[in-house]
Amino acid sequence: MYSKTTIERQVLAYMMHSEKHRLDILEQVRLDDFDSDFHRRICDKIGQMQINGEPVDAVTVGLMFPGKAVEISDIYDA
Fold this sequence. Notes:
By secondary structure, this protein is mostly helical. 68% of the residues lie in helices and 0% in strands.
């Protein structure tokens, strides 16, 4: 069985890997579905980037969270 944190990380990874997955997830997942505040903030930022037509990947998302690029990259690779 997967932990909630592992599932949250996989959802965020899917969002960064694929626009189709990102759009599907953004339609179905609410921010308060995330237990981790950091994961919630990442999801929110990805949603904002999508709305603004900005590219979404580990690098661009990592730039939005100074000092957290390695953690974002780890999530991307989940």
